[in-house]
Structures are given as structure tokens and as C-alpha cells.
Amino acid sequence: MERRVSENPFGEFRRECRDLLLRVLEKISPDLMTYKVALEIPPNPQFGELTSLICFEASKYLSKPPLELAREIEAISKSELGFFPLLESIEAAGQGYVNFHANFERLSSLTIESAIALDKEYGYVKTEKPEKIIVEHTSVNPIHPIHVGSARNTFLGDSIARILKARGHSVSVHYYVDDVGRQSAIVAYGYKLLGRPKPSSKPDHFIGAIYAVTNCLLEIRRLKKLLERSKDELSHDEAQRIRNILDDWVAVAVELQEKFPDIFSSLLEAFEKVADPESEVNLLMRNYEEGDSEAKELIREVSSLCLEGFKQTLERAGITFDSWDWESDFIWSGDVARCLNALKKTPYVFRSGDVFEFDAESVARDFGLKEALGMKKNYEIPSLTLGRSDGTTLYTTRDIAYSIWKLENADRVINVIGIEQRLAQIQLKLALYALGYSGKAERLIHFAYNLVNFPGQRISGRRGRYITLDEAMDEAVSRAYEEINKRSADLTEEEKRKISEFVGIGAVKYALIETDPLKPIVFTWDKVINFERNSGPYIQYSHARACSILRRAPRRIEEADFSLLKEPIEHEIILLIARFPEIFMEAADNLRPNIIADFANSLADKFNAFYASLPVIKAEPPELSNARLMLVNATRITLRNALFLMGIEAPQRM
RNA sequence: GGACCCGUGGCCUAGUCAGGAUAGGGCAUCGGCCUCCUAAGCCGAGGGUCGGGGGUUCGAAUCCCCCCGGGUCCGCCA
């Protein structure tokens, strides 16, 4: 048989089914051709590899029971079958399904040979419309370490970038360094009070401690003052409410004092000497925006220190960026001011007290965007405050300028940002419409994901309540090392270290990519460091097993008789491998990295079942062994390629 | 109060956009399987009013309406 290679084997089968069905429908009644011919995956192999539901639709039109029509299709298709090599048979079933059964000899051959021939490219079907895409992800403020909650952002973003690249887009990955906000001024102020110390630990952890303590002391000072100053004006309830918040922060202070005793006591001491730390922070923030050289030097120093720590973490996790975009640069270049002025010239900005407000609601109404934005008609979108009364800028306003810059440099911009910023992202988008950038606005995508919380409480950078990504990776890697030390004692120390890195980090990545991004995750160590079924390591293990078989095989096989692969489990594996390209396309075109995780897990499942029940190397006759070896190789390639899209290493041994 | 998201066995989760055949997995529990390619594995068992109620449909976890529960947002924070 002629050897063929397809980038999408199941797609070929799907096309044949559709073509055949259309031919048959034309014979029955040309009007049927207008029906949507959607072919679906049947729930059970006994119903074939694809199924059509067209008879249920068409039965009304032809006033014929669905099953009768299905039988008619079955009968007519018999004479056409010869033109469609990947099809074995068509049969009417159930209430009126038309089931398509594949010719497994040919589908197996096409699938396995394609996977092996395309190797590192298998599954990565290229788009017909390559775009320039900017993916902005992580963008953790440079004031505390990357914690496991923001790691969800990092890994989803990284996976999206990998998937889009594999799809043939030109992808540029950006990190937005938010150094302008009040938070940066707070941490810089604390850092200055401490006399700009050299970090005594990993720089981002060190900065995170300073930030949490400084912020906490500021909050306590502010709340106490508030209670004191307005003792007589406050209602009883109001005063009680503030006292409760204060109590909360005092509890935070106790936690922080325990965790960072040195920083805490030094900062507490320094704070007592300052009359009004609050205004000093505000001054620093203002000076920074104005480009005051002392403020610039200080805040850039703190931010860079923190970023240095991020880069260590990200490098370990295998995450890279093409561009680090400093928010402050957009202020100093005048972009933000220009953008603000332009916005003020539109009819959508009004004054409210000392500040300008952006009337997002009117834009949505005038441009008829409510429905497209997923909002109810009667819901009034809140306005957006564009600046502080002291003249400094606000985050979303700065983000408008940044977004325009990104959109000028790309066909599509994907922002991986927490779902809690949904409203702000909508307001931002509406501002682009108001500015006359409708085309750009449509190409701006907010990829939203939900929070990772601890059981019973929120992760909070401001309170210093978090588990860092570093800790999570350390813990996962050390557990992986124990495991690998037990089972693969013959590996060198270096190999063991390397593999435990892959496995531990793979576990964390998988756990954060696998769940639907819109669902909140409750953090537990057992969930994030899972090495059992439905985990990164489970897939890696399956890959290593496939490698192990191939390593031990006495010969390299380049062709085989695939008609010998008759076991149902073999067919299931082949089908999954064949479907990988279309699952990949779905993941790429709908931004769904989690379905790659799901797919890889299913394939690993099937492969392990196969592994346990059927011999490969010792299979008899040798021709069967050959065919299985090639199946194992195709599985290995597909698992590896799926793992790659999640940024998970595929070790050959573990 | 309003808007958005989520609700699937004890716990976690796929399927919901594009409605179809006995609702897939995993954890935990119980019972089996290593002189045989890595047991991070495999096989089997029990366990489900798909949050509730209406509706549309030949057919609803999936679509529509109402309600309930949880989360998020509604800041001169980011």
C-alpha cells in the first residue's frame, strides 16, 4: 500500500464521512444538502467512530421516521463506499443514527505513520491565517513573590503562547511591570526606611516581606487615626466596622512579626519616628510619576530587585518572555497623558469633583455593545475614575495607553488577567471604542481565570498570606526526588535531580492548567502535588514507559502491517492519536489549554491499559510486535507533543 | 441591592458554546494483580433526583424562565 502522511488523520476520516453523506443525501433529495452536516463522536465504539444526527432533523422535512431515512442512507451508501478508503461501513442504528465505522487497517496506518513521520510537528496543524499575537501574562506586581495563585496565570499564559505558536502564529510574550501604583511606592518607602538593605533571602521574597509589613503598619496607623479623629462623627455601627477591620490588620501584624521578626521590628521602629508615613508614600508616588530622579532611582531599584527574583523562579519553571514592558515608561513618554487628553475630548468624559470620570455606560449604549460584552440591557456599567485628585494616574487609565501600544504592534492581544478585573477590562475596552479604535478594541481579548484560594481564606499579597511558587516547586520536586530515588536507584545523582525537577514542576503545572480556568481552585498540597492518575507525572510516566519499551526493543521498526492491531484498546489509542490534531486546533482557536491536559490524560490512560494487558516486544508473531512497536512510538510522540504544549517536560526515564 | 461566573456520587472534575444512544474520569472505600517491556501502574465492586421547580423538544446535564446556594465585581486599589 502506498504510504501516506496526513497532518490530521481523523480529519481525513471526517471529511470522507461528510463527503459520502453529502453524496447520498443528494441522491435522496438535493434539499437535504442544505442541512448542517455535523458529525459527532459517538459515546461508544460499538456505534462507530463518527455519527450523524441528520435523520432526526430531516425526518420532519421528508415526513419519514428518522430510522427509515437512516436505513435508506445505509443502503445507498453501500455502492459509494469504494470511493472512501478510510470507511469500512455505514449503518443505521438506534432511533435514527447513521454510524460511520472506520477501516482500521487504513486509519491505523495513516495515523501511526503520520505521527512518526511528522514527529515533533505531529498534531500542530498550522493555521491558514497566521496572526501577530501578543500574549501578556503573569505581570505580577514587583512587590511580592509569584504565589501559587498567580502561577495559574503564568502557566495558563505560557501554555496559550505555546499553543498559538505551534498553530503557526507569530507570538510575542509580554510581561507588564506595574511599577507605578501606590503599592510600589509603599514597598519602596519601606525599603528606604530600612536603609536600602541588601536582600538577606531570595530578592522577591525579601521585598515581599518588606511590602507586607510596611503595608500592614500603614493600614493600622491609618485606621487608628480614622477612629481617633472622627470619634464623635462616627455612628456606633460605623466605628465598630472600622474596629473590626483594624482587628483584622492587627492579626496580620502578629503573623508577620512571627514570619519576619527582623524586618518587622526594624520597620516598626522606623515608623515611630515618622509623623505621617501616609503622605510620604503619596509624595513618593507623585514624584515617581513626575520623573523625579531620586524617586526613579529608588522605585526602579526595588522593582528590579523583585524582578530578579521572578526571573529566577520563571527560569526554573521554563517560562520565558520576549518583552518586559515597564508601566512607568508609558507615563514618562507622555503616552498616558496623550491618551487621557484624547479621551477628554470625547463626549464620554465628565468632571466629578476634582477628577474626570469616563462614562463607560454611554459608550456601550451608543456603540450597541452591551450584548456583545455579555451584559444585560438594563445593567448600568459603572463609570471609571481616570485619575487621582492629586494629579497621579490610575491603573486602568495607564492600561488604556499600554493596550493601544500593544494593539499597534499586533493583530490580536491576549491579556491573561484574573476574572476579578473583568469590569475594569470592559471599561478599558469601551475607552478604546470611545477613542475611535473600534477595530483595535475587537482584537483585545481578556483571557479570564479564577482565583486559587486556601481552604477558608483568600490568598493575599497585601497581608503576606500566600504560598510562593518557589515553595510549591521545592516541595513538589523534593517529593518527586524521594520517589525517583526509590524506584530508579541506578540513575546518576544528576539524572535524578534533573528528572525530579521535571516531575515536580510538571505536577504543579498540570494541576493549574487542568481545571477549567473559570472555576476557582481550593489549594491543597495533595491536589497541586499529585503524582497519581490524572496528573502531570502520570502522563510523564506513561511517556517514560513508552520510551522504555522502545529502548529495549531489539530493532528499530520503520514499517509494519497495521491490520494486525485488532484489539479494542489498540483501536482506542489509534483513534486518540488520530484526533490529537483536531483537539489541538480546538485548543488553539478557542484558547482552551485545559483540553490539552484532558487529552493527554486520556491517552495516558489508554496507553497504560494497553501496557498492562498486551506484550509489545515479546508479542507473537514478530509482525505483530513490529506493529505494536510503531504504535508505542506514535503514542510516545503524541504524549510528548501534548506535554510540550503545557510546558511540561517529557522525561525518557523516571 | 445590581451584574457576571460557578453548582454533576462523601470530595474533586469532563461533558454545557454548536441538545441526541447506558452522564465519562480521578480521590477516598472495598476486593484482586509484580519469577513477564518501570506497580507514579493495571483489573474489578459499590456509590448519581447532573442545585430545585417550571417550559421548549420526538429527545435536556446541555436551550429559555423563575428560585436556591457559593464565588467575584460594583475603589481617587491593582
Query: What is the CATH superfamily classification of the largest domain?
Result: HUPs
Largest sheet: 5 strands, parallel
Tell me roughly what share of residues is in helical segments: 55-70%
Estimate the mean pLDDT confidence: 94
Strand percentage, roughly?
Answer: 5-15%
CATH topology of the largest domain: Rossmann fold
- Count of helical stretches: 24
Shape: globular
Q: Helix- and strand-based class?
A: alpha/beta
* Main sheet strand line-up: 7-6-5-11-12
Distance between the ends: 39 Å
> Could you tell me the radius of gyration in angstroms?
30 Å
User: Any idea how many domains?
Assistant: 4
Question: Are there runs of 5+ residues with pLDDT below 50, and where?
Answer: none
Folded structure, characterized:
- The chain is of the alpha/beta class and 654 residues long.
- The protein has four domains: 9-102, Gyrase A, domain 2, CATH 3.30.1360.70; 132-179 and 326-453, 3-Layer(aba) Sandwich (Rossmann fold); 182-306, no CATH class; 494-645, Orthogonal Bundle (Isoleucyl-tRNA Synthetase, Domain 1), CATH 1.10.730.10.
- The protein is 57% helix and 9% strand.
- It has 24 helices and 14 strands.
- It has helices at residues 9-28, 54-62, 66-77, 104-118, 148-166, 182-193, 203-229, 236-259, 261-272, 277-290, 293-316, 327-332, 335-345, 360-366, 395-408, 422-434, 438-442, 469-487, 493-514, 525-528, 536-552, 568-589, 593-613, 622-645, and strands at residues 39-40, 50-52, 87-93, 97-102, 132-136, 170-177, 323-326, 349-352, 355-358, 384-385, 412-418, 444-449, 452-453, 521-522.
- The protein has a five-stranded parallel sheet, sandwiched between helices. Strands 1-2-4-3 form a four-stranded antiparallel sheet.
- β5, α5 (148-166) and β6 form a beta-alpha-beta unit.
- α23 (593-613) runs antiparallel to α24.
- The longest helix is centred in the N-terminal third of the chain and has 27 residues, at 203-229.
- The protein binds one RNA strand of 78 nucleotides through α2, α15, α16, α18 and α21.
